[in-house]
Amino acid sequence: MSQQDYSHIHVETTLPKPWEEEQTFNDVLYDWMGRAPWLAISFAAHIVFYFILAAIPWDEMSKKEEVILQADIITPPEEIFEEPEEEEIEEIEEEIIEEPIIQDSEVVEETDDVSEDLDSDLPESPFDSNQFNDVIGIGGGAGGGGGKTGGRRSGRKKVGKGVEKALLAGLEWLKDHQSEDGHWDADDFPVECDKEPPYSDGEGSALHDVGLTGLALLAFLGFGDTMNDGQYHETIRSGISWLQKQQDRSTGLIGEQTASNFIYNHAIAALALCEAQYGAPNPILKKSAQNAVNYIHRARNPYSAWRYQVPPDNTNDTSVTGWMVFALSAAQDAKLNVETDAYRGSLSWFDEVTDPTTGRTGYTQIGEGSARPRHLQEFYKAEYTEALTAVSVLCRVFIANILNEPIKDDDRQKELVERGIELMMEHLPEWSEDGSLNDMYYWYYASYALYQLSEQYSSAWTKWEKALSDALLPSQRTSPPCFEGSWDPIGPWGHEGGRVYSTAIGVLCLEVYFRYGKVLGSR
Predict the structure, then answer these.
(1) Residue 368 near residue 353 (C-beta atoms within 8 A)
(2) Which residues, at least 6 apart from 258, have a Cβ–Cβ distance to it below 8 Å?
């Protein structure tokens, strides 16, 4: 039997070799855990590398097309009043506080120039109203109401034809010399006349355009017209719009703060805005008027009155204070926000500068005469006028009415008022060809003061009224055509205000019969 060779046969097996030691799961796990720190380090390194890559601004490395933005500045539209469409304003009937009835006295003197009343609807005398003068008869008292514009009446007391004719002629002259943009130009007004030459003379200072525009507007508003009604409503609307454009929206100041006269400009312009707002309420105009009033309050010295400096420096004067009192009074009538402490501060100032023995009120201190341009002080002597006395008397009347604090018979206020009247009777209006006596500023304040007091002091008013008519009516220009209706600016302030000033304030004097009774203090 032959022997077989099995050496070429290879047998595979998964069984562990006898010489190899078999690894258990625990052995493998132990081995893996031994290498774990290096795995952790590797993992952490990859994480750090990932965040580094993420932080790189890859987008910035690629060039982008530059984007150019263009913007145009669009000027906001000017805030000019516009009458609200079909807005009905509910009329609120004022509550009248009844007091003892005072018997009316006839105070209008008929002259040779008096004829049948012109067919017009001019406002009538305030003393024909059924409202009572509630400050010893001293006060705003009876005033206009009703009528188609709310400020006029359908009928009125007869006034001399000469006065009425002069009043209308003055308004026409002002209308003809208004600039196209609505303002009255102190020195360039002559070129506005489109009538037969020569052009009128009498230029004033360009620094007063704002104040003169306000003064001219007061003449039209005092006539009874408003921005929305009356034969001069377009003239008023255009002028008010121009004043609004001159106002600094951040401060409320109307015009520029140049020289000392800027405060007069603002006061008169603010008065015009407030009266216009009263006559034809408008939300945009109300905002302008309130801003102007706010500026007036900021300009006042604490517990006292006003002068030129803003912010105030604790100096006061009677002239500026007078305009401010009337501006605030009109603002209150127009239902604007007014600080009533301003009235008490003003009254305190008038007391401080009024001589208790004579009743004369000073300019910046007791015993001081009326202000005059320095270079004209010798020609226009202060002793010929009681302008500041008239200012204080009229302000006392209105402040008593506003604060509802009647001046009583035993009151010191009444004594000062009566002495002031005596002083005004010593200096009646008189027109002089050289202008040395022509203080129309004085005539304006005294006319309104005496007319408001005419029921108690009728003889004083009658005497003043005749002198005023004799001074104003014959001196009003009737020719050439571009002069017709104006007054020559030959008084102490004519060089500053010019013909626009003298004509506007002349018209305001003639409106004494109805303007204050209707416009200030007795709404």
Answers:
(1) yes
(2) 207
Q: State the residue for tokens 């009229």.
A: 394
- Torsion from C-alpha of 205, 207, 212, 214, nearest 10 degrees: 180
**What global pTM score does this model have?**
0.73
Locate the domains of the chain by residue range.
Answer: 126-519
Contact (Cβ atoms closer than 8 angstroms) between residue 139 and residue 133: yes
Tokens coding 216: 């001219």
pLDDT tens track, the chain, 523 positions:
555 555 555 555 555 554 455 566 666 556 655 665 666 677 667 676 666 766 666 555 554 444 444 444 444 445 444 544 444 444 434 433 333 333 333 333 444 343 333 333 333 333 233 332 334 333 333 333 333 333 333 333 456 789 999 999 999 999 999 999 999 999 999 999 999 999 999 999 999 999 999 999 999 999 999 999 999 999 999 999 999 999 999 999 999 998 888 999 999 999 999 999 999 999 999 999 999 999 999 999 999 999 999 999 999 999 999 999 999 999 999 999 999 999 999 999 999 999 999 999 999 999 888 877 777 777 788 788 999 999 999 999 999 999 999 888 878 999 999 999 999 999 999 999 999 999 999 999 999 999 999 999 999 999 999 999 999 999 999 999 999 999 999 999 999 999 999 999 999 999 998 886 634 444 4
Residues 6+ apart with CB under 8 A from 285: 81, 227, 240, 244, 273, 276, 277
DSSP string computed for 371-411: ---GGGTTTS-GGG--HHHHHHHHHHHHHHHHTT-PPPTT-
Residues 62 and 80: their CA atoms lie apart, in Å, by: 54
- Longest CA–CA span in the chain (Å) reads 186
Axis crossing angle, helix 494-510 with helix 209-222, rounded to the nearest 10: 10
Where is 130: in which H helix or E strand?
Answer: none
Helix axes 233-245, 283-299, angle to 10 degrees: 50
| Contact between 482 and 190 (Cβ < 8 Å) | yes
For residues 128 and 144, give the distance between their C-alpha atoms in angstroms, rounded to a whole number. Answer: 9
Q: Packing angle between helix 341-353 and helix 387-402, nearest 10 degrees?
A: 150
φ, ψ dihedrals at 254, nearest 5°: -100, 115
According to CATH, the topology of domain 126-519 is: Glycosyltransferase (1.50.10)
Phi-psi region of 314 (alpha: psi -120 to 50; beta: other; left: phi over 0): left
The residues, ordered by sequence, that sit 6+ positions from 516 with a Cβ below 8 Å of its Cβ are: 126, 140, 448, 451, 452
Other beta carbons less than 10 A from residue 220's beta carbon = 27
CB 187 within 8 A of CB 200: no
| Alpha-carbon separation of residue 101 from 96, 132, 399, 403 (angstroms) | 13, 7, 21, 21
- Tell me how crowded residue 266 is: count the other CB atoms within 10 A of its CB: 29
